[in-house]
Design goal:
single chain; alpha/beta; 3 helices
């Protein structure tokens, strides 16, 4: 299964459109399929990236789908720890 991807830049200005794009991508997945979001391209971000990731997680789990983040960089994981949400973002790779 192909993962949905975060863009290279995800700040407040892009957050709403990015979340909508991810949710539309989730709707195209087969019923019950896991949602995997690839963050490996993400280079410029602020705390809005966490909001998008958590919003995606909430949408996936609300639809009864497993959720997983892939390619989470050390700086992004550090920001998630700072906000106390790193435990909510299951990661792989």
């Amino acid at each position: 299964m192909a993962a949905l991807s975060l863009p290279s830049t995800l700040t407040h200005d892009q957050a709403h459109a990015c979340l909508q794009h991810l949710q539309a991508g989730m709707a195209q997945l087969p019923a019950g399929a896991a949602v995997q979001i690839d963050a490996s391209a993400l280079a410029v971000f602020d705390s809005s990236a966490l909001a998008v990731m958590l919003g995606s997680r909430r949408a996936a789990l609300g639809a009864g789908r497993p959720f997983e983040m892939r390619g989470v960089s050390a700086p992004l994981l550090s920001l998630a720890r700072l906000y106390g949400v790193d435990g909510l973002l299951t990661t792989a790779g």
